[in-house]
Every structure is written in C-alpha cells, then in structure tokens.
C-alpha cells in the first residue's frame, strides 16, 4: 500500500522499498541532500550529471500540490560532491501526515546520505531583518509539535533512532559556522543572519496578534515547514544545516497596510535564489572541511 492512500504507512520496510527502487535506478550515491523551499527549485539547476525522477513515479512518495514546488528528485554533482535535491517538499497543510512529509528524509538516510540542507521561504519577525535576507537557522520552535502534531509520535522504530532524541543541537554548530564564514567570504555578510525559525501549520499567514506572540516567544522568522524534516533528520543521525530566505516582513503593527501573499513569496524567492545557490554550492564544495562529512 502506498502512503498516498494511507497517511500512516511510512514504515521502515516501506522506506526501504523506496530506497531500493531509487538505488536500482541511479548510479548516484549521494552523501548530501538538499530540500528546496518555495520558489527555490533553481538551487538544483547547476548540478552536473543530472538524473531526475518525478515524485509521482517514485513508489510511496507523496506528490507536490503547492505552486513553487516542482515535484522532482534531482541527483547529480555539485563540484565533486554527490548530492540529491528535492525540488519541492510536502507540507502538513496539504493534508499529508507528518510521516509522509518526512518520508523522503528517512529514504535519504537509508540511501547513505549523511548531511541534509533544508531551505525554506519565511516571514521575518526580527525587526532588523530585511526582505531578501538569508537566515542561517540556529534553532527552531516546533509549535505544531507542542500540540501533538509531531513526526515522531507513535511507535518508535529504533532502526531509525531513539525514543527521546535530544534537539538542543539540531542545527549543527560547525555547519552553521561554515555557512556564516562562506557568506562573509562571498561578501554577503550584510544580508546573512542567524536566527530562530518557528513553524506554524499554515495555510493562512499569521494574524497580527499571532505574529506578536511568536515574536515575544523568541522567533526571528516564521514558516510552514522545515521543523518536521529537521526533527526526523536529527532523530536518524543526519547532520543538519537550515537556510531560510526572508521573503516578507511579518506585520506586528495594526497600522501597516501591506498584505502578504504566496505570489510575493515566490517572487522574492526567485529573485534571491541565485544568492542562496552561491552560498549553498560554496558550502557543499567546502563541506569536506567539516569532520563527520564525507568528501564525495
Ligand atoms: O516550503 P516553504 O516552507 O519554503 O514554503 C513557504 C511556507 C508556505 O508553504 C509558503 C507560503 O508562501 O511558502
């Protein structure tokens, strides 16, 4: 049975079947996976020796339903590093269970991936942030998780990870530093920041009262993804880097007239994707400098 029909069938065996299906069809053996956020499919365009699978052709993979999420798995090389890119991710608000949302992460783990780079578009809550800034994610707030919408709820399969994983170091410190150092070398330090990402379920954008609450709670940006993928990645022992593109300023003020919409999010993502791609490809090229990350 496929997870499109059954929201709760992302078992170890099903992950393994999908893994074997992919490994038997690709010569690539990626060590790095990249999840492209809204409007950020361009991140995968510069890979060499490309091999592409459409999500609808991959057993048990959900399909993309959101504009700006192409629904393609792209294998290839960035410099000499074997990578796999998700051009499009899955969200809770699409009606997928969190186990479907995170299914690809577990498949990557079983394929031999060691590091995952998760990107997204988010709204800036920190008053210093500007539209177009890139935020290296330092930490997150799992708001749906507080309410029991958590990808690790349910029986724990020890083959993936332990029952009570530690999340205090979900975003690898060494990888964060490398991303910040690279940004500085590229001359991007004026618009590359570090901060805390807060996940809400969506699909509506925040009310002003909600935005104020998230700000008071310590969130620098807010979005509708990433946290389930990162939680599952950390649970199964992957190294994580998170990069968030600030596509809009979230209003904390009742007198502000601007209204956010998805088209604006996509427009800013597409405008800044090239910058993010530069950070990403330079990061991947230098990732051998970091202990625990293989050189190809
Ligand atoms: O997949 P991400 O988190 O980049 O997508 C963001 C959050 C919503 O899906 C959408 C809102 O515009 O963009």
TrEMBL record:
InterPro entries: Nucleoside_phosphorylase_d, Nucleoside_phosphorylase_sf, Pur_Nuc_Pase_Ino/Guo-sp, Purine_phosphorylase, Purine_phosphorylase-2_CS. GO terms for cellular component: cytoplasm. Pathway: Purine metabolism; purine nucleoside salvage. Belongs to the PNP/MTAP phosphorylase family. Pfam families: PNP_UDP_1. Keywords: Glycosyltransferase, Purine salvage, Transferase. It catalyses: 2'-deoxyguanosine + phosphate = 2-deoxy-alpha-D-ribose 1-phosphate + guanine; 2'-deoxyinosine + phosphate = 2-deoxy-alpha-D-ribose 1-phosphate + hypoxanthine; guanosine + phosphate = alpha-D-ribose 1-phosphate + guanine; inosine + phosphate = alpha-D-ribose 1-phosphate + hypoxanthine. A purine D-ribonucleoside binds at residues 206, 248. It is an enzyme of class 2 (transferase). Residues 31-285 form the Nucleoside phosphorylase domain. The purine nucleoside phosphorylases catalyze the phosphorolytic breakdown of the N-glycosidic bond in the beta-(deoxy)ribonucleoside molecules, with the formation of the corresponding free purine bases and pentose-1-phosphate. Its EC number is 2.4.2.1. Phosphate binds at residues 38, 69, 89-91, 121, 225. It comes from Electrophorus electricus (Electric eel). One of its GO terms (molecular function) is purine-nucleoside phosphorylase activity. This is Purine nucleoside phosphorylase.
């Amino acid at each position: 049975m496929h997870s499109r029909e059954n929201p709760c069938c992302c078992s170890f065996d099903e992950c393994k079947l999908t893994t074997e299906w992919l490994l038997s069809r690709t010569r690539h053996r990626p060590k790095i996976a990249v999840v492209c956020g809204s409007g950020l499919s361009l991140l995968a365009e510069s890979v060499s020796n490309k091999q592409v699978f459409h999500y609808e052709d991959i057993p048990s993979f959900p399909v993309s339903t959101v504009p700006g999420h192409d629904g393609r798995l792209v294998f290839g090389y960035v410099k000499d590093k074997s990578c796999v890119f998700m051009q499009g991710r899955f969200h809770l608000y699409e009606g997928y269970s969190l186990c479907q949302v995170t299914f690809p992460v577990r498949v990557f783990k079983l394929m031999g991936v060691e590091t995952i780079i998760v990107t997204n578009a988010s709204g800036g809550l920190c008053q210093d942030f500007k539209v177009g800034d890139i935020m290296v994610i330092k930490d997150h707030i799992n708001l749906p998780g507080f309410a029991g919408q958590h990808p690790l709820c349910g029986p724990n399969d020890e083959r993936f990870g332990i029952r009570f994983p530690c999340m205090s170091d979900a975003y690898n410190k060494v990888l964060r530093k490398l991303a910040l150092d690279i940004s500085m070398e590229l001359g991007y330090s004026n618009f590359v920041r570090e901060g805390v990402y807060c996940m809400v379920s969506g699909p509506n954008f925040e009310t002003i009262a909600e935005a104020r609450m998230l700000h008071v709670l310590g969130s620098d940006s807010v979005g509708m993804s990433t946290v389930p993928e990162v939680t599952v990645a950390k649970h199964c022992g992957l190294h994580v880097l998170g990069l968030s593109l600030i596509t809009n300023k979230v209003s904390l003020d009742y007198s502000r007239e601007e209204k956010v919409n998805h088209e604006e999010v996509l427009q800013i993502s597409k405008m800044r994707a090239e910058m993010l791609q530069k950070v990403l490809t330079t990061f991947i090229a230098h990732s051998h400098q970091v202990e625990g990350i293989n050189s190809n």
